[in-house]
Amino acid sequence: MGGVRTALYNYLFAKKAGGDFILRIEDTDSHRFVPGAEEYIIESLRWCGIMPDEGLDAGDALAVERSERNPHAPYRQSQRKGIYRKYAEQLVEAGCAYYAFDTAEELEARRAEAEGAGQTFIYSAATRGGLRNSLTLDAGEVASLLESRTDWTIRFRMPQNRVVEMDDIIRGHIEVNTDTLDDKVLWKRADELPTYHLANIVDDHLMEISHVIRGEEWLPSLPLHYLLYEAFGWERPEFAHLPLLLKPVGNGKLSKRDGDKMGFPVFPLKWVAPDGAVSRGYREDGYFPEAFVNMLAMLGWNPGTEQELFSLEELVQAFSLEKVGKSGAKFNPEKAKWFNKEYLRMRSPEALARDFMPVLEEHGVTADFNYVVDVVTLIQERATFVADFWDIAWYLFKAPSEYVEKDAAKFFKPENVQMAREALLQTDSAESMEEYIRSREWPMGKVMNCIRLALTGSSSGLGIADIMRFVGREEAIARFRSAEERLL
Asked: What is the number of structural domains in the chain?
């Protein structure tokens, strides 16, 4: 959900400004690569109606070759790997980065040593002078190591005791002293791939990105990114860091575990992980994409009015980053259902009937479309999801084969059955049947619930008049006789 909301806010901002929304896949971290994730992202955005103007899925799902539609292709960072090394080397030549030759084992030993002394080791201006890098080794050794080793990296050379002043559209003015920051790895010789920091700065510059709108978790990286733009001499984009999505109960970031525990999805579509674990999706749970998008938009953004229901086009017109809050947005699963219920109410009975037909087929029911439209019209206000139509009115499509035991014991007693049978046989409508029961001063509740049980299998449900209007008098009598055979 958080990733989709970030994409949505980027899309809304771009569209309102008359700009382009670009979909780029940032897949340079081989350790975090997940098979199928790229396809999942594209399908999720399609379902939400968030269509890129440029990048993957913009006319050409591959978007590898440059074209008028995709002028900055390719859009997978793994396919752009040949671009980044020269920029990393450019920083080294400018004195803004350096080669680091420390092995993973050596760095782990440093961390353990610091931990034993009650401290935390970071590769920074305070420690780099005692480590194996091009700042401490002579030129000959550096050249030799670059040639003979394949596990070296290029790290950013964080300035000492400098205050980095930054401005964020949502957070306002921020100041950070560089002495609190480490020398991040920018490029790795082992796989010849950049880290997120270098790849994004380079690609945002080359792709002419004007605004970077991303999650709050990236805020600690902002000082480094400011300094990288400065080191390259490039104009910075504007930044906006979105608030976290918070769990419904308690404190902390919303997680899949919260959804599993409380019974709601946190993924837009069903996701099957490589290990086979299945996560529920809003689409598969029966949410309309419009309702999902509307709900997501309101998690962290407030239009400043009482309006809560917005089409995607209306969201574009109303959206602004200045109305996005700094505080985390608490997710309310019941409010999510409310949005879907409202969108279901606004949908035409014909559209809902088309959505409901596959549900009927799953239950082995073949029904006339116009009949289904009439049923939907009757029960539309009662439902939250299309699948609810079956739970509400399944007995309008087939006779009950089972009966709620406690209801049968309470209402389908011989004396009630005798009165109910006579009322059914001697009248031709629910209205005349009620009048017949009153004229004989029979107990209305007992007789009608006896009939309802025969028609629906329980003592609850739609009004008997509506049920009989749909199933017809002959079917009602047939169901009553079937109940007599089964229950008496």
From this structure: 4
